[in-house]
Design brief:
By secondary structure, the protein is α+β, with helices and mostly antiparallel strands. 42% of the residues lie in helices and 20% in strands. A hairpin with a 2-residue loop joins β6 and β7. The chain is rod-shaped. The structure holds zinc ion. Zinc ion binds next to loops.
C-alpha cells in the first residue's frame, strides 16, 4: 500500500507539471481525488490493514492528498497567469505604429460661395436666419402679394402636399421675409439662405431643387439708394474692387419698384464674350423696395417704415465664382469634381 500511495503521488505531480490547460487539471483532479479516483480506491482498502499499520498509512494517504491538492492549486494559478499574459500580449496596442489617415471631406463649392456671402452681410449687421422648406402657401404667396390666380401658384410650377394647395415645398426663400416681419423687432436686417423647389426639368441650368439667398432690410427712411449702395458694396467684395453693376426695371409682386441687377462681365469688361453670352453683363439677382401692401399685411406701417429686399440664386453664383459650366455637377456629389475646390 505504501508503494501504491508513493506511486500515486509521483504520477500525479508529474502529470500536473505537464498540464497545459485548465480542463486537463479538472480531469486529473477527478482521476486522483474523485469518488472513483485512485487515491479514494486506496483509502477504501484501509480496513484490511492491521491496527499497527493503519495510522502510518492514514497519515501518508493524507500527505499524498494534501500534496496533490496543493500542486493542483498552484498549477491552476500558473495557468491562469499565463493565459492573462497571453491575452494582454494579444491585445497590446503598439502606439509607435503610424495610424490610418482619416479621409477628410471637402467643403462644397456652393457652401464656400455661401459662406463668403454670409461673412459680407454679417459684417454689415445682418442676422442669418434658417427657414423651413415646407411652407404654407399663405406665406409663400398670399402675404407676398401673389394672390389666387397668380401664375406662379400653378400646379405645374409648384409641389403641393394637399389637394387644396395650402401646404407646399417653398418655391422661394421670400416667405422668410414675412416670418421675419411678423416675429422680429424693427429695424430688421436679415439674410435667409436655403433650398427651394420648383417643377423644373433637370438640365445644364435648371433643377427642381436649388438654393436661394434672401436679403431684407427694414427701417425708417430706407430708400432705393440704400438698396443700390448695399448691393454694390456686396458685389465689390464678391467680384473685386471696381465691379460695375447696373439695375434694370423688372416686376415682382412683392416689391415696388422692382429691378434686376447685372454685373459687368469680368472677362470682357462689357464688350461681349462667351462667358456673358455676348451681352457684356451677367444677371445676378432680383430686388426691389418692399411693396407697402406686403408691409401692411405683416403689421408694419408703410407710412413710417420702408425696406428693400433681394433674392439671389446660389448655384448660379457658385458656377460663376468657380467657372462651373453645368449646374448638375453641383448636385451629383462626384468627389473627383468636389476635390478641386
Ligand atoms: Zn463677357
Amino acid at each position: 500500500m505504501k508503494e501504491t500511495l508513493e506511486r500515486i503521488r509521483r504520477e500525479a505531480l508529474e502529470a500536473l507539471e505537464q498540464t497545459g490547460a485548465a480542463q486537463d487539471l479538472d480531469a486529473l483532479r477527478v482521476k486522483y481525488l474523485g469518488k472513483k479516483g485512485e487515491l479514494t480506491a486506496v483509502l477504501k482498502q484501509m480496513g484490511r490493514l492491521s491496527a499497527e499499520e493503519r495510522p502510518a498509512m492514514g497519515q501518508l494517504a493524507n500527505e499524498v492528498r494534501a500534496a496533490v491538492e496543493t500542486a493542483l492549486e498552484s498549477r491552476a494559478r500558473k495557468l491562469e497567469a499565463a493565459a492573462l499574459e497571453a491575452k494582454l500580449r494579444l491585445e497590446a496596442v503598439d502606439v509607435t505604429i503610424p495610424g490610418e489617415e482619416p479621409v477628410l471631406g471637402h467643403k462644397h463649392p456652393m457652401y464656400i460661395a455661401l459662406d463668403e456671402i454670409k461673412d459680407i452681410f454679417v459684417g454689415m449687421g445682418f442676422t442669418v436666419l434658417d427657414g423651413t422648406e415646407v411652407e404654407l402657401a399663405e406665406y409663400n404667396f398670399d402675404k407676398l402679394n401673389a394672390e389666387e390666380g397668380h401664375p406662379s401658384r400653378d400646379w405645374s410650377d409648384t409641389f403641393y402636399f394637399d389637394t387644396d394647395s395650402r401646404v407646399m415645398l417653398r418655391s422661394q426663400t421670400s416667405p422668410m421675409q414675412v416670418h421675419a416681419m411678423e416675429t422680429m423687432e424693427l429695424p430688421i436686417r436679415i439674410l435667409a439662405p436655403g433650398r427651394v423647389y420648383r417643377k423644373d426639368e433637370v438640365d445644364a441650368t435648371h433643377s427642381p431643387m436649388f438654393h436661394q439667398v434672401e436679403g431684407m432690410a427694414i427701417d425708417k427712411g430706407i430708400t432705393m439708394a440704400d438698396l443700390k449702395g448695399t448691393l454694390n458694396a456686396v458685389m465689390e467684395q464678391l467680384f473685386g474692387k471696381g465691379t460695375v453693376t447696373r439695375f434694370r426695371p423688372h416686376h415682382f409682386p412683392f416689391t415696388e419698384p422692382s429691378c434686376e441687377m447685372d454685373v459687368q462681365c469680368h472677362k470682357c469688361g462689357g464688350a461681349g464674350c462667351p462667358t456673358c453670352k455676348g451681352e457684356g453683363w451677367i444677371e445676378v439677382l432680383g430686388a426691389g423696395m418692399i411693396h407697402p401692401h406686403v408691409l401692411e399685411m405683416a403689421g408694419i406701417d408703410p407710412e413710417v417704415y420702408s425696406g428693400w429686399a433681394f433674392g439671389m440664386g446660389l448655384e448660379r453664383l457658385a458656377m460663376r465664382r468657380f467657372k462651373i459650366a453645368d449646374l448638375r455637377l453641383i448636385f451629383e456629389n462626384d468627389t473627383r469634381f468636389l476635390e478641386q475646390f
